[in-house]
Amino acid sequence: MSYEMWTEKYRPRSLDDIIDQEEIVNRLKSFVKARNIPHCIFAGPPGTGKTTAALCLAHDLYGPGYHEYIMELNASDERGINVVRETVKTFARTKSIGEVPFKILILDEADNMTSDAQQALRRTMERYTETARFILIANYSGRIIEPIQSRCAPFRFTYLPEEQIIKRILYIAEQEGLTITDDGVKAIVEIGGGDLRRTINVLQTAASTGKPIDEETVYSVVGRANPADVREMMLTALNGGFIEARNKLRELLLKYGLAGSDILAQIHSEVFRLNIPERWKVKIMEIIGETDYRLLQGSNEEIQLSALLAKFVEAGEAIRRG
User: Which pLDDT does position 150 carry in this prediction?
Assistant: First the structure.
């Protein structure tokens, strides 16, 4: 197995390689064709290709040597006003040598910048438009001040559809010579939650075990309980088996080394799959919310989760009575 990070190894290199973001790609291609781009904000959930799209745009605009014309900064690390005044301004004021008369500054995690830094950035964007274009990448565009938003063309990224993520997993598995089962693919997709970067990292972590990648392998390497085990524990409690369900809970805590909040999050997900009346799902969700609050306040995990299972037992009895 290659030790190179697969997220870098298998990322798109050109705008033509980006899938399922057609509207965004077409707009970016029009910029490349015109050899000119405005300041941009790429906003959307993590792992949806925002940074990759910015790098692909630079590649198509400048060619293979595009790294000479761009600067990447992560604003979550370098988020103060001094970075804008020194690093950003120094880069922005120097003119590009080549067919394209400007350079590109990619500012990742821009929504983590302080308000003062954003105000300084706004002024820099105004003064150096001729020599530099800014691409601000953010999970939450609302955290970027309005004066900057009004100067930028917005691009909204969305999660990839599940079928495209599955196709990518199978492609990487084939390229790396991995053995992966259908339930292993399903587990990776579920853990990834639409975040393709996280999905690929989970796949690489599972592959590092040297075993066939199945459901059990995937859940063991990421430190999550198998949903089937969590569902079995919940159903056991709903059917009146409190002691058996509690033993299953302790087994999960010991086997996977999970925190109580992790188990609770999985219980929360599984409630929606239970075959019980809607009104009881509502009541159970309310109980889960109370348990979550108590855990956040520092209550004993095992006691609170046991109390939650006791509520499941009571709910099951009420459901059977009708």
Answer: 92
Q: Are 6-156 and 162-222 equal in CATH topology?
A: no
Q: Is 201 helix (H, G, I), strand (E, B) or coil?
A: helix
Q: What CATH class has 162-222?
A: mainly alpha
pLDDT tens digits for 240-273? Answer: 999 999 999 988 887 777 788 888 988 998 998 8
What is the predicted pLDDT for the residue at 173?
93
pLDDT < 70 positions in the chain: 1-4, 75-84, 322
Instruction: State how far the Cα of 265 lies from the Cα of 290, in Å rounded to an integer.
Output: 13
Distance CA 117, CA 25 (A): 30
CATH class of domain segment(s) 6-156: alpha beta
Beta-strand ranges (E) seen in the chain are 40-43, 70-74, 103-108, 132-138, 153-156
- pLDDT attached to residue 295: 92
User: What CATH number belongs to 227-321?
Assistant: 1.20.272.10
77 burial class (0-12, 13-18, 19+ CB within 10 angstroms)? exposed
Q: Which secondary-structure segment (H or E) carries 14? A: none
Every domain of the chain and the residues it spans? 6-156, 162-222, 227-321
Helix (H, G, I), strand (E, B) or coil at 160: coil
Place of tokens 């990839």: 160
